[in-house]
Amino acid sequence: MAQTVPQVVLVGRINAGKSTLFNKLAERGIALVSDIPGTTRDSNYARIDWRQASFTLVDTGGLDAATLGTVEIQVQERAYRAIKQATLIVLVVDGLGMVTSADREIAKFLRRTAAPTILVATKLDGPRKRRSVSPELYSLGLGEPHLVSGVSGAGTGDLLDAIVRQLPKGKRRAVPEPESSIRISIIGKTNVGKSSLFNALIGDERMIVAPEPHTTREPQDTTMTYHGTRITLVDTAGLRRTKHRRTALEAVSAKRTEDMISHSDICWLVTDISESLSAQDHAIAELARASQNGIIVVANKWDKVSDKTPTTIDEHEKRYRQYFTGMDWAPLMVVSALHHQRLRQLMDLTLKVHEARQRRLTDTQLQRILSDHAPRKAAPRKGTKSATELELHQTGITPPTFSLKARHTERIHTAYLNQVERALRTHYDFVGTPIIMNMHKKR
Ligand code: GDP
């Protein structure tokens, strides 16, 4: 077999629970990419795609050191070859049983092979069983055991994470590194104060800020560093109303603005708080939403609002929320570009949104979301168990993307997906970022 992807080899005694674990890992890794052609799987090999890394999982069949003497001689030919070619070895032991001399023999053999080894104790379906696991496992010299259940799948996501972490970097499929620079598009209709905001932040007079509209013709980029993060601000030329007064120049600018958004991470949707919101504000918000960028709604010209009371901001926020529906997750930041008011807070919030977009939750955290915070209340049907048949995994970042796996996807309503999203947002900080919820069928 050509070794184009890393090989992760499962070894263990007969009856240790290896095949069940193999099937569970294969099911989890493959189901997420079931629409990718060429995904192969047979009883001994499974191609696993997990968190943008790919590897081949190899099941060696059982090693039986106890009856056959020393491991070096007796491991079946196939297992021996697989171990020699392995990038990483996973030694599976029965978590319910005692550590046997065969386990020790195998561990000893593996400690001498070139590939690193991960120790896994399986058959541990619940916390009670996990607590009763034999302390002798720690004496095998293979580090802390990963406690899993091949039947329920408990701990297998964390195990896949651990496997992927151990694969040599060069052998993983290119995984985009977390971005340490942020690209922000300043968007909004004409005259809301985009250029003023840009200018107030950049602190020079490069931009033409003038009372008459359309003074900014070209999108502009400027890079700065804020708290160690590189931030590129892109001032767009303003999205023009397409129906009225559409000149060739404006059409080009609008198209370019759309392109800019598609290359950005976060949009500052600038509006004029002293005026009522218009269909144009709404249309621009929709563009940002479609791009899956993070969004901060910037309510500029706060200085123009007269007769302020302690509740004025809340009243405006209510008005904004009613107008920009379906993006409650986008925070509202009230500023004055003219008076340089709350600009630092805007920058700080931007860093938080950037962090939220890169947030990754573990399977354990996600399973807790399902069991504790979004239990499925649907009336149990014949043959279904409620929440226990569901799995939640994170499959991506920027924006955070999740996959809800269920045996009967047709029985999961959108309302439930929304409930899961709400629970995610309540318990973890996903401020300013959309969350993508996908559904996959569990095999
Ligand atoms: P753009 O078309 O969105 O880039 O808007 P500009 O930055 O050119 O600003 C349009 C007008 O609004 C200019 O006359 C600015 O001086 C004014 N302006 C911008 N920000 C503020 C603000 O915070 N307060 C007040 N009072 N005026 C502002």
Strand elements, count: 15
From the spread of the alpha carbons, the general shape counts as elongated
Give the helix level as a range of percent. Answer: 25-40%
Order of helices and strands: EHEEHHHEHEHEHEHEEHEHEHEHHEEHE
Quick tags:
six-stranded mixed β-sheet, single chain, 20% strand, 14 helices, binds guanosine-5'-diphosphate, elongated, 33% helix, 443 residues, alpha/beta
Give a written overview of the molecule.
This protein is an alpha/beta fold and 443 residues long. Helices cover 33% and strands 20% of the residues. It has 14 helices and 15 strands. The protein has helices at 18-31, 65-68, 71-74, 77-85, 101-111, 127-131, 156-166, 194-202, 248-262, 279-290, 312-323, 343-357, 363-373, 414-427, and strands at 7-12, 45-50, 53-59, 88-94, 117-122, 146-147, 181-187, 220-226, 229-235, 266-272, 294-300, 332-334, 391-396, 401-406, 436-441. A six-stranded mixed beta sheet has the order 2-3-1-4-5-6, sandwiched between helices. It is elongated, with a radius of gyration of 28 Å. The chain starts with 6 loop residues before the first strand and ends with a strand. The relative contact order is 0.09. Residues 31-43, 66-75, 172-179, 204-219, 238-247 and 383-387 have low confidence and may be disordered. Guanosine-5'-diphosphate is lined by residues 188, 190-196, 209, 211, 215-216, 238, 300-301, 303-304, 336-338.
Topology diagram in text:
Elements: E1 7-12, H1 18-31, E2 45-50, E3 53-59, H2 65-68, H3 71-74, H4 77-85, E4 88-94, H5 101-111, E5 117-122, H6 127-131, E6 146-147, H7 156-166, E7 181-187, H8 194-202, E8 220-226, E9 229-235, H9 248-262, E10 266-272, H10 279-290, E11 294-300, H11 312-323, E12 332-334, H12 343-357, H13 363-373, E13 391-396, E14 401-406, H14 414-427, E15 436-441
The structure holds guanosine-5'-diphosphate (GDP).
